[in-house]
């Protein structure tokens, strides 16, 4: 644990992955583990973990990278966090993100921009960019992220690591600061598929605090992986829309090479179609923003965090605290969401988006009926330059065209490294049937 902090202090001035370190408590916890010894049934004891700073941690500052929560100290731990704590993993700190997980580059953080582990002039992706950069740069072996529209998978891809967006309901969202409640999932970010599988088993499962968490049994995903893991006979779908215009040539060729690898390993790879994939981004920005506008109402200047000074009345407290406390992108989403939900516009926007969502779900169902999983790129490009896209929200939104539909459909999506293009990592995404993370891990492990 001490070595972890020494390393973070040496490397983080360059990477800027962390917002808060938990040094005193972590070293104390490590001492206690040393004193007590590691039990055979506690294989994770003493392993350092970093947490995206939208997971609440008891007594450890949790900001969601927002000025409005700058000095917020939660009074409880998120369920995923307490599960790791019960396994005696050591929380070393809280990682940077786009404010309230809204963004794809960490440039929307109120505090700092994290850097890509491979090239510090590039973004680490987002919104779990701090978690991805921390893992990829060797600061920690594991971090947790959250994924509403790609926020685990895209930064994992940009940093050449493994990340999973589990099936909706696989992991409890209790204690994850809500963005889009019908889309959000917590998931692990690691350097190998097996590590990822290990941590997902540790955080998954039903939780009375989150009634959308599933009662499905949680397999020991890592135990299912071994040398004999085989993709022989599996049917893989490669949607033609995933290699269409807008996807960089270098990304395309990495994915086509991966398809060949799977064929050589005995799987079949067919061209399939997800014809409504292109409507995913539009539907997501209505649904996600609508849910966000509702979820963020609790930040009113009274209950949590930042309160503006110099206010005349109650309404002034709300308006000033929110105007000063939220950043630009968050305000954009609140306005978009409030508009989409308002009387007179609801039918044309929210309801329409909800119908599009169903059509997208049906596209996936049709393909997954006779395919074990879908493969494709995570993102159309490799990591872009810091400052290159932040001024242009639509371009930024389009980066998630391949990840967003997976959240809309609630399916599991595994992101794993598939080579390089122009010296930057390319990420491959494997999308599975609901609650079939096992097949994704097996296929990822066979490829890796
Ligand atoms: N980049 C997407 C957005 O800005 C996804 C974010 C996420 O998954 N949290 O909404």
Description:
- The protein contains 14 helices and eleven strands.
- α4 (129-136) runs parallel beside α5, α8 (280-295) crosses α10 and α8 (280-295) crosses α11 (347-369).
- A hairpin with a 2-residue loop joins β10 and β11 (424-432).
- The protein is globular and about 70 Å long.
- The protein is of the alpha/beta class.
- The chain has an eleven-stranded mixed β-sheet, with helices on both faces.
- It binds glutamine.
- Residues 101-104, 127, 147-151, 179, 288, 400 line the site of glutamine.
- Glutamine binds next to loops.
How would the blueprint of this fold be written?
Layout: H1 2-15, E1 18-21, H2 23-36, E2 48-52, H3 79-86, E3 90-95, H4 129-136, E4 142-147, H5 153-159, E5 162-165, E6 185-190, H6 193-203, E7 235-239, H7 249-264, E8 268-272, H8 280-295, H9 314-325, H10 328-341, H11 347-369, E9 373-377, H12 393-398, H13 404-409, E10 413-421, E11 424-432, H14 437-447
Parallel strand pairs: 2-3, 2-4, 7-8, 7-9
Antiparallel strand pairs: 1-3, 4-6, 5-6, 5-10, 9-11, 10-11
Bound molecules: glutamine.
Glutamine (GLN) binds at residues 101-104, 127, 147-151, 179, 288, 400.
By DSSP, the count of extended strands is 11
Helix-strand pattern, N to C? HEHEHEHEHEEHEHEHHHHEHHEEH
Largest sheet: 11 strands, mixed
Helix content: 25-40%
Bound ligands, named by name, code or SMILES: glutamine
Mean pLDDT: 97
Shape: globular
Q: Which sequence of strands runs across the widest sheet?
A: 1-3-2-4-6-5-10-11-9-7-8
Uncertain spans: none
**Which structural category fits the helices and strands?**
alpha/beta
Radius of gyration from CA coordinates: 21 Å
Distance between the termini: 28 Å
Relative strand content: 5-15%
Q: If helices are DSSP runs of H or I spanning 4 or more residues, what is the number of helices?
A: 14
């Amino acid at each position: 644990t001490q070595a972890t902090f020494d390393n973070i202090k040496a490397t983080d001035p360059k990477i800027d992955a962390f917002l808060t370190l938990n040094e005193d408590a972590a070293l104390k916890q490590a001492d206690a583990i040393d004193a007590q010894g590691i039990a055979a049934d506690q294989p994770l004891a003493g392993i350092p973990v970093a947490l995206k700073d939208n997971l609440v941690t008891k007594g450890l500052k949790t900001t969601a990278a927002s000025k409005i929560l700058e000095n917020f100290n939660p009074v409880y731990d998120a369920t995923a966090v307490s599960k790791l704590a019960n396994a005696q993993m050591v929380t070393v700190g809280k990682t940077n993100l786009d404010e309230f997980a809204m963004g794809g580059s960490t440039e929307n953080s109120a505090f700092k921009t994290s850097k890509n582990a491979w090239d510090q002039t590039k973004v680490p992706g987002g919104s779990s960019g701090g978690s991805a950069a921390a893992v990829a740069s060797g600061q920690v072996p594991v971090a947790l992220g959250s994924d509403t529209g790609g926020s685990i998978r895209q930064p994992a891809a940009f940093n050449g690591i493994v990340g999973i967006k589990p099936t909706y309901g696989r992991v409890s969202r209790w204690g994850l600061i809500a963005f889009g409640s019908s889309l959000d999932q917590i998931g692990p970010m690691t350097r190998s598929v097996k590590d990822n599988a290990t941590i997902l088993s540790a955080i998954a499962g039903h939780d009375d605090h989150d009634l959308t968490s599933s009662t499905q049994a949680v397999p020991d995903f890592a135990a299912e992986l071994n040398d004999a893991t085989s993709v022989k006979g599996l049917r893989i779908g490669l949607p033609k829309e995933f290699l269409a215009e807008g996807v960089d040539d270098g990304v395309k060729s990495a994915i086509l090479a991966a398809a060949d690898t799977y064929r050589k390993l005995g799987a079949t790879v067919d061209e399939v179609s997800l014809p409504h994939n292109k409507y995913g981004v539009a539907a997501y920005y209505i649904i996600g923003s609508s849910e966000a506008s509702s979820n963020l109402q609790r930040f009113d200047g009274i209950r949590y965090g930042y309160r503006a000074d110099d206010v005349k009345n109650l309404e002034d407290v709300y308006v000033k605290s929110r105007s000063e406390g939220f950043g630009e992108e968050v305000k954009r989403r609140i306005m978009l969401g409030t508009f989409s939900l308002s009387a007179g516009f609801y039918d044309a926007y929210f309801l329409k988006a909800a119908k599009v969502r169903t059509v997208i779900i049906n596209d996936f169902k049709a393909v997954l009926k006779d395919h074990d999983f879908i493969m494709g790129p995570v993102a159309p490009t490799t990591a872009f330059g810091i400052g290159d896209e932040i001024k242009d929200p639509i371009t930024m939104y389009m980066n998630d065209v391949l990840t967003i539909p997976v959240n809309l459909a609630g399916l599991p999506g595994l992101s794993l490294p598939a080579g390089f293009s122009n010296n930057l990592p390319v990420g491959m995404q494997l999308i599975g049937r609901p609650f079939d993370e096992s097949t994704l891990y097996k296929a990822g492990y066979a490829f890796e």
